[in-house]
Amino acid sequence: MRLLHTSDWHLGRSFHRVSLLRAQRDFLDHLVRTVREHAVDAVLVAGDVYDRAVPPLAAVELFDQALHRLAELGVPTVMISGNHDSARRLGVGAGLIERAGIHLRTDPAACGTPVILADDHGDVALYGLPYLEPALVRDELAAERAGHTAVLEAAMERVRADLAARPAGTRSVVLAHAFVAGGAASDSERDITVGGVAAVPADVFRGVDYTALGHLHGSQAITDRIRYSGSPLAYSFSEADHRKTMWLVDLDGVGTVTAERIDCPVPRPLARIRGRLDDLLRDPGLERHEDAWVEATLTDAVRPDEPMARLARRFPHTLSLVFEPDRAPEDPLASYAQRLSGRTDRQIAEDFVAHVRGGLGPDEGERTVLTAALDSVRLADVTGEVAR
């Protein structure tokens, strides 16, 4: 059976205020062509279909067009909700849409209920695990503890129980939206940390022939059987070095996996350039970036006059301008962005408490309150409701 694994479309997202709607439409055109030209048997979409819980109308229209085109091909599509999606909104009409071969899996309670497809070698069971927010699904899944690992393990227990009751030789595929240990993140994924822990071990998906992951935007293989497709488009300059692809996965009669990367269209390359403004404007080696979307980091000791206008004359698609004057690392004027780089929201909040209290950080009770407040804000993003 041939599967096309994609994820993280983020329909409705822009890139530094530049609309990506046309690029997203071009990607979906490419997706449909790939399904047709490579004789794909099923399409897997591993979450973050939209960029936010309440997407703009243009994004909804584009998604509607994509569903119609996939249904017209007669190729089954299995799709789960991600942490950016509103599961309830995405799942509206799922029962009716399923009649057209589009299987929306947004309900955590249905984790153990697969879509069954068949080929010459027998059945393939495809299980859709939507993004599982621990605070919302722990009780429903009867997870032993709070946290991503516990709720995913509980969901996978349902998958393995269902699979064990099926005929011997039934092959299995799981779609999941999670941060799996060993994966390489970028700056454009929304933090899903709960209590400081977000990554789950790859062993959670043991016993499955193929796991199609979403969430991380770089295409990568955790193991031969566990892969991220990555996003089809770059959504931050941290993805400048990414090769944007989908996975074309072949599952043979005994569950052996072979996979090939299918490149996605690139609307415009990304470039990150760094140096003194005058040097950037003169350097002949930067000519190849003159048509790219550019993030320029200026290292001038004194901020130059009209830097964006001057950069735009050579690099007309400059979208981001960062100032990082060359200074000693211990310089107290080092940039705010540098001081925050690599730190979690909780660490930043705790550092702020220590700063305003003369170095005295939060105690355990205060840490609990801070963590609850941050989790409440994140849950509001997931549910689309205002946190109280």
TrEMBL record:
Family: Belongs to the SbcD family.
Calcineurin-like phosphoesterase domain mapped to chain residues: 1-217
MF terms (GO), sorted A to Z: 3'-5' exonuclease activity; endonuclease activity
Purpose: SbcCD cleaves DNA hairpin structures. These structures can inhibit DNA replication and are intermediates in certain DNA recombination reactions. The complex acts as a 3'->5' double strand exonuclease that can open hairpins. It also has a 5' single-strand endonuclease activity.
One GO process term, biological-process aspect: DNA replication
Subunit (UniProt): Heterodimer of SbcC and SbcD.
The protein's name in its UniProt record: Nuclease SbcCD subunit D
Domain Nuclease SbcCD subunit D C-terminal: residue ranges: 267-355
Signal peptide residue numbers: none
InterPro entries registered for this protein in UniProt: Calcineurin-like_PHP, DNA_Repair-Maintenance_Comp, Metallo-depent_PP-like, Mre11_N, SbcD, SbcD_C
Keywords: DNA recombination, DNA replication, Endonuclease, Exonuclease, Hydrolase, Nuclease
